[in-house]
């Protein structure tokens, strides 16, 4: 067979994802990446995410659901609802009769170290903050890095106090110290060596007084400093959501600046792209909705997670308050007709850890947004799987929009595992598929994404919102 013919056959018959930088304007990618990086810097906790998202929505003409129900005028069907300050749903409802919704769900919670209800102790002349980790972390990765303390404290009178120590470059930070290699004779399974109970952060070393003998004088000094700054007392820690999160700056990565290193790409990458896609989408024909959810990293349990009925109630209330006409008359059937992208990050192949993946079914950094037909563990358990027709629809949509995409599953068979919000939406009958950018170093305090993958995720989400599949 002639060489040209073989080349033509190979191009026509083989599936070979292409590097996504090839055809796109790098200026446009750079501009979007800068906005995304700025968002990550400001949104280091789920509460911070919600407050920035709410500001962004308000500045784009969105009205809160509560205000709308009290009579505030909704312009262009733009409405949002935040739940307990930890999850937020934004919705745009076009005119006309509706048979289905377009939903994108992502999560804004990220693995971190929460303070225990009684966190502050003194030991060996040092004040220490005790933590309880949240989500799947490699404990050793949290040692000897700067940590910021961010969160909300409710004082004895019920007043909410915002705490932020370590976010600004001039702030002090907190550090969990590891044992020096000279003295470290620990051997064996690193998962057993590093224990959750040892993730205790250094928080102070000076006593409140040198003259008087004071019990736990270093701890008392810390309590005084907190009281001076925030007016809080030790009992207030019990009614608080305080998180230690990496205080590492968001930076370009690589000589070519093609990647972004930051805390929390999983899954603020999909949250930010879904949000901006919803706000910027043109010519919506279906009611469209970005659901930025909480609690995904621990299984979506809790009032702000995908298993809570709050998102169902929000959609129902939003459709009612805007007077949207539903063709089926039944909200449940509208949900069953609806399409959803479960926006979550995929694992990119790391040259250092190739064996963890099946190379033919693994995502590559810089090769566009990743379609994940199924997640789950051991024989496809604990997941929803998108049927062939759904994958086909998304494939056609992305090809038509010229979005670079690839396909992956999480790890080699029996190695992977990890659900997303998809299955909880599938329980309501929503047609759902996982799709998002690939990440290196997932769940570490400093994850890496490719700028072009973030941009292609945004373009994919925007094309989805503008579609009537
Ligand atoms: Mn995730
Ligand atoms: Mn995760």
Question: How would you describe what is shown here?
Answer:
The chain has 469 residues and is an alpha/beta fold. Helices cover 29% and strands 23% of the residues. A nine-stranded mixed β-sheet has the order 1-2-3-14-5-16-20-18-19, with helices on both faces. A six-stranded antiparallel β-sheet has the order 9-8-11-6-7-10. It has a five-stranded mixed β-sheet with strand order 12-13-22-21-17. It has helices at residues 3-13, 26-42, 46-59, 65-69, 190-193, 217-230, 265-280, 310-321, 331-337, 388-401, 422-426, 451-465; strands spanning 63-64, 78-83, 87-92, 97-98, 102-107, 112-123, 126-134, 147-154, 160-165, 200-204, 240-246, 251-253, 259-262, 288-293, 325-326, 339-342, 346-347, 369-372, 405-407, 431-436, 438-440, 447-450. It starts with a helix and ends with a helix. It folds into two domains: 15-110 and 263-465, Aminopeptidase; 112-246, Roll (Aminopeptidase i, Domain 2), CATH 2.30.250. A hairpin with a 3-residue loop joins strand 2 and strand 3. One manganese (II) ion binds at residues 107, 266-267, 296, 344-345.
């Amino acid at each position: 067979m002639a060489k040209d013919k073989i080349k033509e056959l190979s191009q026509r018959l083989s599936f070979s994802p292409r590097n996504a930088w090839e055809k796109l304007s790098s200026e446009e990618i750079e501009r979007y990446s800068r906005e995304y990086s700025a968002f990550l810097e400001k949104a280091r906790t789920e509460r911070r995410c919600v407050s920035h998202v709410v500001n962004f929505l308000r500045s784009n003409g969105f009205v809160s659901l509560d205000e709308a129900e009290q009579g505030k005028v909704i312009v262009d069907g733009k409405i949002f609802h935040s739940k307990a300050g930890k999850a937020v749903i934004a919705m745009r409802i076009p005119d006309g009769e509706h048979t289905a919704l377009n939903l994108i769900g992502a999560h804004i919670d990220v693995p971190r170290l929460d303070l225990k209800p009684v966190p502050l102790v003194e030991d060996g002349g040092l004040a220490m903050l005790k933590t309880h980790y949240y989500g799947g972390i490699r404990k050793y990765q949290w040692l000897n890095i700067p940590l910021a303390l961010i969160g909300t404290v409710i004082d004895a009178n019920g007043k909410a106090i915002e705490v932020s120590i370590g976010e600004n470059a001039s702030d002090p930070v907190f550090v969990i110290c590891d044992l020096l290699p000279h003295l470290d004779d620990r051997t064996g399974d690193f998962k057993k060596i590093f224990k959750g109970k040892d993730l205790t952060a250094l928080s102070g070393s000076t006593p409140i007084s040198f003259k008087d003998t004071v019990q736990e004088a270093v701890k008392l000094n810390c309590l005084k400093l907190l009281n001076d700054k925030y007016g809080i007392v030790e009992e207030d820690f019990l009614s608080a959501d305080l998180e230690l999160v990496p205080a590492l700056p968001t930076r370009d990565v690589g000589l070519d600046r093609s990647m972004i290193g930051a805390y929390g790409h999983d899954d603020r990458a999909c949250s930010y792209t879904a949000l901006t896609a919803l706000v910027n989408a043109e010519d919506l024909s279906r009611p469209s909705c970005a659901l930025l959810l909480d609690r995904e990293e621990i299984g979506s349990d809790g009032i702000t997670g995908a298993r809570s009925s709050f998102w169902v109630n929000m959609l129902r209330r939003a459709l009612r308050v805007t007077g949207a006409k539903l063709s089926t008359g039944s909200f449940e059937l509208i949900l069953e007709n609806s399409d959803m992208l479960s926006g979550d990050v995929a694992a990119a192949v790391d040259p250092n850890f190739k064996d963890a993946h099946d190379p033919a079914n693994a995502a590559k950094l810089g090769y566009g947004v990743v379609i994940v037909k199924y997640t789950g563990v051991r024989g496809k358990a604990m997941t929803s799987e998108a049927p062939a027709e759904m994958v086909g629809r998304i494939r056609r949509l992305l090809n038509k929009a010229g979005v670079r995409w690839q396909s992956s599953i999480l790890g080699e068979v029996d190695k992977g595992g990890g659900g997303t919000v998809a299955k909880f939406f599938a329980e309501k009958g929503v047609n759902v598929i996982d799709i998002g950018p690939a990440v290196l170093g997932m769940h570490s305090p400093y994850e890496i994404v490719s700028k072009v993958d973030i941009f292609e995720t945004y373009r994919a989400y925007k094309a989805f919102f503008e579609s009537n599949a």
